[in-house]
Specification:
Length: about 130
């Protein structure tokens, strides 16, 4: 088990992994839900101000997965070790971006939300780029 997977599993108990289509779908939901919970708690604690637009975009991505990404994850090639390594790295990047939400202040909320939104965008782009390599 790689360091990224160890970190993901220590953050998200019961993480499904990437072994098959069902696991990859569930893992996608688990990561998005974990990030969404951090964002929702942040909204309750800190005024979003100018970060509201980025926040809403990020929370929608957490609630509703990108259908192109979900379809890509259903491809059996995403069970191959080199693709799993990318999935692990991207999920870890997103989890790291959303970590620490409980310490974000109103002064740092815009940067924090922008970083989470960018991590979501990068994760989706990386998955779609792998899908295009046929």
């Amino acid at each position: 088990m790689g360091d990224d997977l160890i970190q993901i599993r220590s953050t998200i108990p019961g993480f499904a992994g990437f072994a098959d289509v069902a696991a990859r779908r569930l893992s996608d939901q688990q990561v998005r839900a974990w990030v969404g919970e951090r964002l929702a708690a942040l909204r309750e604690r800190v005024p979003l101000g100018a970060a509201l637009g980025d926040f809403e975009d990020a929370i929608v991505h957490c609630q509703f997965g990108d259908q192109h990404v979900i379809k890509a994850l259903e491809d059996s090639r995403f069970g191959e070790p080199e693709r799993v390594a990318v999935l692990e790295a991207e999920d870890t990047r997103l989890i790291v971006a959303a970590s620490g939400s409980e310490t974000v202040t109103s002064e740092g909320v815009a940067a924090f939300v922008a970083a989470v939104r960018e991590a979501i965008r990068q994760r989706n782009a990386a998955i779609l780029a792998l899908d295009s390599k046929r």
